[in-house]
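ESCALATION

Customer reports they have been waiting on this structure for their group meeting. Please prioritize. Original submission:
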Amino acid sequence: MSRIRVRPTRAETRQRLFEAAAELFQQRGIGAASIDAITEAAGLTRGAFYSNFADKNELIVAMLEDHVDRSVRHHRELLERHPASSDFVNALRTVERSRKDPLGRAPLLHLELILFVARSPQHRSQLRERLRTRRALVAEIIERLNREGGPVVDAEWASAMLLALEDGFRLHRLIDPQGTPADRFFESLTHLQRIMRR
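Update from on-call: job pushed to the front of the queue and completed.
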């Protein structure tokens, strides 16, 4: 008796393409990873790729959007479980990222993809929207932490500063991984908390 072959859902197809692309981008570089190689690594056909994305740029933008969406959900859930600022920062440092988010497990690749897409004027506006979503999330977290008492900071200004700090450390780690430990951003958050409590 022959086994019935179940076609993957659209969400499963996209997830397989994200995972395969992330792995190949890290191994070969973004430019050297072809659509054929990505679909082969994902165990899918070219038709499956083109039914979801027009080209590799569109795939990369979708990967970045997926990462931001997952990150927003992840941070909100974490904040619900750890409402105190010190607990929240400690949880951010130690909690395991979702295994389904390839960019959550590869922050340097995340930065490389942002730089890659930023070179494309037609996709830059999509990056801008994702950045604004990230800023709004951080500002929301800061507003909630402001209600704890103690020093109150401007949420809009602080969110822009913290995201620039995080992305800056990622860039430094890309350039000088030995001189920029993986947890440097979280160390900076801890130092900022101490300064604000004085």
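Sent to customer with the following note: The mean pLDDT is 85.
Escalation resolved.
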